[in-house]
Amino acid sequence: MTTVAFIGLGNMGGPMAKNLLKNGFQVRAFDLVQAALDALAGEGAYAAKSAHDAAEGADVVLSMLPAGKHVRDLYIGDNGLMSMLPEGTLVIDSSTIDAGSARAVSEVLQSKGIRFVDAPVSGGVGGAVAGTLTFIVGGSDDNFAAAKPVLEAMGKNIFHAGDTGAGQVAKICNNMLLSILMVGTSEALQMGIQNGLDPKVLSQIMLQSSGRNWTLEVYNPCPDVMENVPSSNDYNGGFMVDLMKKDLGLAQETAMQSKSATPMGSLANSLYTMHSNQGNGKKDFSSIFQMLQELKG
Ligand code: NAD
Description:
Number of strands: 9
Bound molecules: nicotinamide-adenine-dinucleotide
CATH topology of the largest domain: Rossmann fold
CATH superfamily of the largest domain: NAD(P)-binding Rossmann-like Domain
Structural class: alpha/beta
Number of helices: 13
Number of domains: 2
Helix content: 40-55%
CATH class of the largest domain: Alpha Beta
Radius of gyration: 20 Å
Strand content: 5-15%
Distance between the termini: 63 Å
Shape: elongated
CATH architecture of the largest domain: 3-Layer(aba) Sandwich
Order of helices and strands: EHEHEHEHEHEEHEHEHHHHHH
């Protein structure tokens, strides 16, 4: 039986670790928050006293942490896991972090014979609970093959994006595009409404025309056009503005490093930053629709 040390049992990590348990993996869990640890122990995980304790005897170490600095500290910081993991251990980092941190951690770990893949996810908390996440993996063919059975216990689509760091780059390319589609769809709907159109009718027209996109298909930002989406629930649930802002910041960092022109991504980053600064950070990211409404002259 494969033993997984799972570090970071937050909104995403908690349900992901639970799915590993459900699928027959042994889980040695650690989080700084005792309540998160207790909840997973109740599902059958070993509640570790530290990250080192969790990693003791584990075949795989999986982390789901907030940002690059947490991941660097965990593995290659002072007292990092690099000093205790045996050769051959597989490290999977599923946090959304900058590709530079993923590559830096990988380089140090691989120099010690420890295998590494970056495997950020798409699918949100709903996907984590349902076990239907999309994993976007960066790493060698061998390491991808080793990680796949673990990831399949938590997700539905497992993509190999390329070498180390490619998972992170692919994920933020997708989220940058998503934010642009959300802003564009919102402003088109607002302009239609402000010219007397019914947003339901306009949505149907655009869905069958060349403006068709994912937000119109399953995530309409205008309240009451669709059922069971955050816009029809006061923008609660879904994917928070602050998480989109984080991903857009990572996208801009990547663009700067590769000297890529991302004018639309840069504008989306500014809009989501303004929206967050106005107190909307915890709302779903489709609430950018409201901001465009408020900006009307
Ligand atoms: P979260 O803040 O809910 O969880 C992070 C957890 O890590 C917390 O429980 C925290 O206590 C723990 N933690 C922090 N430092 C630690 C340490 N040194 N040792 C042990 N535990 C530590 O965040 P989340 O929503 O679960 O997101 C995790 C990652 O997944 C982030 O990188 C985020 O960008 C990404 N992500 C989130 C979503 C989403 O919808 N929430 C979707 C896709 C990707």
